[in-house]
User: What shape does this take?
Amino acid sequence: MSRNIDDLNVNYTEAEEQELNVNLSETEEKELTVEESFAQLDEMVKRLESPDVTLEESFRLYEDGMKLLKKVHATLDGYEKRIQILTSDGMLEDLEDM
Assistant: This one.
């Protein structure tokens, strides 16, 4: 699903439009790191707080943000499950088994 800034119905400068188009394309093309995801979520919140954002854009941003947040949560859960603790007898044990 490819989107561009024209789909967002928001008044941005030409430079802002280009940056947003690049960010949307990059997000769709690659898997974001947790840090990149949080940065993207932060940008979404800033845009939501803008007085110029339309109701439609607000709903789109909210939906996209919730999807991204769900992915981040799943990634962090996966990291947590992979954490292992070295026991006193030299065996590796999953954190959840403790």
The CA atoms of residues 2 and 25 lie 7 Å apart. Residues 1-10 have pLDDT under 50 and may be disordered. Residues 55-82 form the longest helix (28 residues). The beta strands are 84-86, 92-94.
